[in-house]
Amino acid sequence: MSDRRYLVKEMFGPTLQGEGAHAGRAVVFLRFAACNLACPGCDTDFDPQGAVRMGASDIVARLYALDTGHARRVVVTGGEPTLQWDAPLSAAIRGAGFRVHMESNGTRAPEGAVDWLTISPKPQHHPAGLPLADAAQPDELKVVVDDTVTEAVLDGFAARYRCEHYFLQPWMMDGAYENNLARTIALIHARPRWRLSLQQHKIINVP
Ligand code: SF4
């Protein structure tokens, strides 16, 4: 096992996955610190300030302790989790019996194996010269809808990413939720390959 220490912002659970094709499933969460984007209105605390360094065996032990229902499914997120995810940590967590669901912004392909990859692309917020990663191919695509997302934007994503699940999720944090929801519904009617994803954890008030 590697002696690398990973910068972990928080681990919590058991809770329910709130978004996408696995919404409603019992999971635990592993949130890494740090992100390579700075999207306006981001509501996630990934600040390295207050994060802790943990080795792979520490992380696995904590996952076991959190996973009281033995669901053995961990959502790995951030920040941007691919900044830290690597083959030794993947081997440790998957070898301990957990299915790994990663949520990435798609700018990097995960270096270690995952069992389910969600990409939520936000190219409108990329710094100059940071492309989406060609090698990052998702199981599900989740586009957060604000007034920059159009039918043409969706067509571009659908052409770029071939996967089974395409989700649209109204952006909640820009003060325009009602407009974003209406836009989301209109986009689904215009492009019915896409389905609605709501942040169910916020609706039922679980972390
Ligand atoms: S990629 Fe995600 S975590 Fe990073 S700044 Fe954007 S919304 Fe926040």
Rg result: 17 Å
Reading off the top of the CATH hierarchy, the class is best stated as Alpha Beta
Instruction: Supply the CATH superfamily name.
Output: Aldolase class I
Question: Which small compounds were modeled alongside the protein?
Answer: iron/sulfur cluster
* Residue windows where pLDDT falls under 50 for at least 5 positions: none
CATH-assigned fold name: TIM Barrel
| Structural class label | alpha/beta
Topology:
Blueprint (H helix, E strand, L loop, with lengths): L4 E12 L9 E7 L19 E4 H11 L6 E5 L9 H9 L3 E6 L11 E4 L20 E6 L5 H10 L4 E6 L6 H14 L4 E2 L3 H4 L4
Parallel strand pairs: 2-4, 4-5, 5-6, 6-7, 7-8, 8-9
Antiparallel strand pairs: 1-2, 1-3
This protein binds iron/sulfur cluster.
Provide tags for this entry:
single chain; 207 residues; alpha/beta; TIM Barrel; nine-stranded mixed beta sheet; 5 helices
Provide structural commentary.
Helix content is 23%, strand content 25%. With 207 residues, it is an alpha/beta fold. It has a single domain (5-203), classed as TIM Barrel (Alpha-Beta Barrel). Helix 2 (87-95) links the parallel strand 4 (73-77) and strand 5 (99-104). It is globular and about 50 Å long. The mean pLDDT is 95. The structure holds iron/sulfur cluster.
